[in-house]
Specification:
The chain has 185 residues and is of the alpha+beta class. 26% of the residues lie in helices and 31% in strands. It has helices at 27-34, 51-64, 116-132, 146-154; strands at residues 12-13, 17-21, 67-72, 77-85, 100-107, 136-142, 158-167, 172-182. It has an eight-stranded mixed sheet, with helices on both faces. A hairpin with a 4-residue loop joins β7 and β8 (172-182). α1 (27-34) crosses α2. The mean pLDDT is 97. It binds coenzyme A. Residues 39, 42-43, 105-107, 112-118, 140-141, 145-148, 150-151, 154 line the site of coenzyme A.
Length: 185
């Protein structure tokens, strides 16, 4: 079962980050990380070739209300995104009765390896289980994406299945590894 999400009034604080809705004023921060080759490609979208692309996507983040901006408190800028999307589990007989959302994330390259996304994910899991009434979250990574696999493992997701994902934007298929995390008892 899908859960309606609206991040527009939500602020989640962690030690180093604030997760909050995107605003139009985040455009230059967003473009700065989304235009770096090799970041979006690991998540299935091509890096932005122009600020107009970032502006269009930013507008969709604001309108769709599913994506948090990952704001770095000390550096005072947006360094990534974390989205709560419709999950494959909603179409899977074994899981479709669960109230579930899919988590997706991207982080600016210069911030990789500091445990920032695990920190953000754990805040979102707590919010989802306690406030949204989620019973589970799903997450996934492309087979070759060891960095995302490590985030998923460190956040204690359990592997469910492997499937093929076709990215229209990248015009290629990926082997997609899918995981689930149930609400702790
Ligand atoms: C996946 C991603 C969000 C991880 O965020 P993060 O905050 O760096 O996560 P962590 O700090 O926990 O690092 C995860 C793993 O990345 C690897 N790593 C760390 N620093 C790295 C670096 N500078 N370069 C390459 N890999 C690195 C390590 O294997 C680490 O695992 P470990 O903690 O067991 O050593 C980030 O790498 C990213 O934005 N990648 C591109 C987009 C993407 O893949 N999104 C997910 C789509 S499913």
């Amino acid at each position: 079962m899908d859960i309606k999400t609206d991040v527009s009034g939500v602020n989640l604080e962690t030690e180093r980050l604030t997760l909050r809705p995107f605003a139009e004023s985040d455009l230059s921060d967003f473009y700065a990380y989304a235009s770096v080759p090799g970041v979006g490609e690991m998540a299935g979208w091509p890096h932005h070739e122009s600020i107009a692309t970032s502006e269009r996507i930013l507008r969709s983040f604001i309108d769709e209300k599913e994506v948090f901006a990952v704001y770095h408190k000390a550096d005072r800028k947006v360094i990534g995104s974390l989205g709560l999307h419709r999950s494959w589990a909603n179409e899977d007989e074994a899981y479709k009765a669960l109230r579930v959302k899919e988590i997706g994330y991207v982080l600016a390259k210069e911030y990789w390896g500091q445990g920032l996304i695990p920190e953000a994910v754990s805040a979102v899991l707590e919010y989802g289980f306690d406030t949204l009434g989620a019973e589970a979250f799903t997450c996934g990574h492309f087979l070759e994406n060891d960095q995302s696999r490590r985030v998923i493992e460190k956040c204690r997701f359990k592997f469910v299945k492997r499937s093929e994902y076709y990215s229209q934007q990248m015009r290629r298929s990926f082997e997609d590894m899918k995981y689930i995390l149930n609400r702790p008892l």
